[in-house]
Amino acid sequence: MSQSPDSVLTSAATPSRAPYSAPDRFVADAPRSDVVSLKGVGKTFPNGVTPIAGFDLTIRRGETLTLLGPSGCGKSTVLRLISGLTEPTAGAIDWADPAARRNIGFVFQDPTLLPWASVFDNVYLPLRLAGRSRAESRETVMTALARVGLADFARALPRELSGGMKMRCAIARAFITRPALVLMDEPFAALDEVTRCKLNDGLVALKEELGATIVFVTHSIFESAFLSTRILVMSRAHGAPVAEIAIDPATTRDDDYRMSEAFTQITRRASTALRAAMGETA
Ligand SMILES: Nc1ncnc2c1ncn2[C@@H]1O[C@H](COP(=O)(O)OP(=O)(O)OP(=O)(O)O)[C@@H](O)[C@H]1O
User: Fold this and answer.
1) Mutate which of 38, 66, 75 to test ligand 1's pocket (most atoms within 8 Å of Cβ)?
2) Is the CB of 4 under 6 A from ligand 1?
3) d(CA 153, CA 123)
4) Residue 74 and which of 1, 29, 40, 195 are 20 to 30 A apart at CA?
5) Whole-number mean pLDDT of the chain?
6) Whole-model pTM?
């Protein structure tokens, strides 16, 4: 039912709230700066293994957060919990926008491309699943392929691509729906160092262009220092963080940065924290 101008005036003129109530309402309506928050989250698998317990983590909008830690400390479990692929057995996962949890991009170490489908159709797949026709998606898919340098390979099959190209295809697919959050689980671990550096550069450019929020799992200290705006070093003690390293988001991530003193300092801090997480002293 629409209000008459009079009733609007009346309600505005009648002090129905105590003085200074407006700022409270403003705070309550303010957009959240996080995408999702894990609050006291625990995961116990049926075999009794509890990689994660009492885990708190807030993923902030626009950040690239790297989870670094020894093998088995629960990094992939955290990604799976955020994605909804597995359910927490304790605590809560609180989304700022519940619709965002249905639009998450995921990139695994294995590019998981459909072998019988072209590069174009692999990247088109999430749009197809969302009910968009191939014709109306054409421009979006071709733009996504151009962003990752695969525009000339739209008709190629995955078997015709190198490992790095397959991963670029998987990344284009993960970003095609402009997800609120992209989860990346050791995506470049199987690639050689040169290809890995190139893909790191490409991911930085893609993120700059699309402004995505990324949670990235890696074993590489160098990769974490290059990509992240924040590194969380986790321990085997149910994933408990041993260190959090912030990196200025305004840092230009290029070859000069890779050679810089700032980069060296971050890798040194991450390395010390990782040794502590593994129970070694520096
Ligand atoms: N579905 C499952 N059932 C039982 N145990 C599991 C399951 N998934 C993971 N685990 C166990 O939980 C622990 C954490 O696994 P997770 O894969 O999250 O660690 P990670 O830090 O990502 O390890 P890595 O760096 O080696 O990939 C491991 O001990 C693993 O064996």
Assistant:
1) 75
2) no
3) 12
4) 195
5) 88
6) 0.87
